[in-house]
Amino acid sequence: MVHIHPQTKSAAVNPLKSSQPLGAALAFLGVDGAIPLFHGSQGCTSFALVLCVRHFKETVPLQTTAMDELATVMGGEGHLEEAILNLKKRANPKLIGICTTALAETRSEDFERQIANIKMMRAEELAGTEIVLANTPDFDGALEEGWAKAVTAMIQQITRRGQQARHSRKATIIERITKPGEHPDKRKKVAILPGWHLTVADIEHLREMVESFGLKPVILPDVSGSLDGTVPDRWMPTTYGGTSVEDIHELGTAVQCIGVGEHMRRPAELLQKLTGVPYAVFQSLTGLKNVDRFVSFLSEISGVVAPPKIHRCRAQLQDALLDGHFHFAGKKIAIAAEPDQLYQLATFFIGLGAEIISAVTTTGASKILEKVPAESIQIGDLGDFEDLASDADLVVTHSHGRQVAERLGIPLLRVGFPVFDRLGSQHKLTVLYQGTRDLIFEAANVFQAHQRMPSPEILDGLRKRRNAG
Amino acid sequence: MYSLAAKIQDAFDEPACEINRRKDASTRKKGCSKPPTPGAAAGGCAFDGAKVVLQPITDVAHLVHAPLACEGNSWDNRGTASSGPMLWRTSFTTDLTELDIMMGQSERRLFHAIRQIKEAYAPPAIFVYATCVTALIGDDILAVCKRAAEKFGLPVVPINAPGFVGSKNLGNKLAGEALLDHVIGTVEPDDAGPYDINILGEFNLSGEFWLVKPLLDRLGIRVRACIPGDARYRDVASSHRARAAMLVCSTALINLARKMEERWQIPFFEGSFYGITATSEALRRIAELLVKKGADTEILDRTDKLIAEEEAIAWKRLESYRPRLKGKRVLINSGGVKSWSLVHALMEIGMEVVGTSVKKSTVEDKERIKQVLKEEHHMFESIAPRELYAMLSEQKADIMLSGGRTQFIALKAKTPWLDINQERHHPYAGYDGMVELVRQIDLAIHNPVWSDVREPAPWEDDPAVAEQLSSPHTHSATASVAPLKTSRLDAGDFAEC
């Protein structure tokens, strides 16, 4: 049984968390033609934007309602309306994802009613643009919660429900048939709700695997189309690529929904409630057994056996486990990450014979924490992490851990968000057979790079016999 | 909040600001920056501005009293450098939870946070930053800081610049006010001398002030305090005993310079270390001010001699870049590193300045840029991203110098780009800094990747292939789809995987 220690300090030292609205914004960035809009003061957006740009190395469309002193005292509805209308006029987005901040939420206005009003009064001007609200105050949760809330909000607010969804599906099929020579897509549709910690490469790879079973994946959010680092041939004020708004409307026509990460259970549950689509949550897609279950599940819903390519990938992973385990066995690992990523990585390292000597996470609400294979988990920051990780062979966290790693003199494996001092974090594969294989290689290479040459002093450590007295 | 409102009015009514002097009384009250447009705003808030100015003070613990985002999303993101203490890079925030806010526990939490930092790090001072939420719920950080300072026996300085009060620039000025109110003049130095100066508004980005300081050392001039770059709390606290001051980033700290002149008779001038002529002029004016305040006049000759030596070396080194950079068109789009002198130096080696932003330039600076450029329309306040992209993709500039915010506009338009703002990795100040800047421009423009990325794929000339490629999202299903033969599995088995 893992002990979960709550935060007791008054000052957070070197925060591990990124804020909840930032998590929501990341999710909205996975929708095609979208602009996330922070409802708060200008700085809330500016800080988040700079952090996103440093991580993705991309232009990131992110806007602000720019609440000033007057709006802070009198209420921000006017600013909200003005921002929405300005965005519509300037960029004509298909979706505006509103993420409230601590400033707006401390005033606790009825944002839902305000947005309903704006939509009603400005129906004509706003035609063709969906407006989705996620309540994401900074004083609660972190990235994971923000991401899940934004996905939940999209399903709640714009996915067609029950019967409605099925009707509209028929309509689209009929439309498609009218095109000569084209057959309606008979592939079974699978709705996939990936957690925030899946990279662009993860999502692309996941899509390919699901397609290889003859299934049609619809992924929400899909950052693989929007934040994958391509060079568009014109200036885009919104995201380019990602889940289409139409696909979000039609999510209820899927035969199955798959959530990746415990934090995607809530949106998956909601989708089932609203449309009847059954769901399964895979808490991690890293590690041989986890992937085996996933592959079997895809076989089950598609009625198709796993294609040869997948067998080959599995065999490669088996080999990587054999080659890699020498480097992991007995190693002491310290991980600081959001709950689902902590679970994913802790189980990965344990699965290769390493030991988790310290685990720090952002918030204590997730059920997954009980399953993390560590003796205890500290809800806290990188200051706590530094205190707990001093005996580790490897520290695993995001780029803000660089100071910890430097001071402790322990190598750092960068994961999650933000990674601002290394290139290509979005193209790193961490899930399925290939991702697990790549992770083994990456970590094993770090161990090898930091291997010390034998010396009498190092061997002295071995001669100090534990049972000698 | 009353005193804060008064401070803001005071900051807007800056008599040393040339732009301000030209306004009438009523427009002056409104301040310089227009209120941001919801849905079309860029740039930071007042808290951001205050932190930017104060955080480089290296041995101070900077504690942000706020829910997570204000500090959690923004720490360790600037490239200022320290020659000693690293405490400034450690992030402290009260990380308020919903419970703290709803139950009114935030002031107590702040007090305990100060205690925690004092006990664990024993810094010479703690700076406490107010933010939107803590200002909105009425936390009295002044009172908490005062009480904590008495109780724990160290300076605890309230920085009252919550984000919603205005722009980043206003925050810069409020930070200056906080130093005036609580820090400067609180420590008497025992070593004040006739060659002591302050440098105000120099951030020591990428350690670039260390390219200038040796020059001052050679002249026997001591930097009493460089605020804020690589500063120590004690230096700032005793900076009122300097004889003269140079104001580097004038829009950020002009109020500080003016009030230090009023209170402690420290004369100042506005100058820049960007560009060769500007650096020489700065050195000369420092020497002149010191002489005016009683230093020996022989320093003037020594300064002239040093300038002549250094300029000759710098121009000679720059000359070697002329063949490679002559006729190259440069667009300067930044509020930071830019001055008439930089424009002048680039033109001197044969580059063409096709545009420069003058957003944070002083009136004098603008006049001089106008003279150097000759064409006034090459000066602009700001450019919309869309226009900027169009301009660059039509290859109207060979390189853009700007900050991270517009980096990817240039790169996506396949245009060479050089960071000249706070995240940059190269020092550009002083004579050697100018040479380094030109070297970086040369490296950027002549990188072999540009010809690679601009070339279309060879098959893009083939219309049939191009059409096939441009059809949206063709994620074709893999061909090898075989029927399932294994026994049935229960879907429920996987629900908890």
From TrEMBL, chain A:
Function recorded in the entry: This protein may play a role in the biosynthesis of the prosthetic group of nitrogenase (FeMo cofactor).
Keywords of the record: Nitrogen fixation
Name of a matching Pfam family: Oxidored_nitro
Protein name: Nitrogenase iron-molybdenum cofactor biosynthesis protein NifN
Species assigned in the record: Sinorhizobium kostiense
Domain Nitrogenase/oxidoreductase component: 19-447
Similarity section: Belongs to the NifD/NifK/NifE/NifN family.
InterPro entries (alphabetical): ChlB/BchB/BchZ, Nase/OxRdtase_comp1, Nase_comp1_CS, Nase_Mo-Fe_CF
Record pathway: Cofactor biosynthesis; Fe-Mo cofactor biosynthesis
Keyword Transferase: no
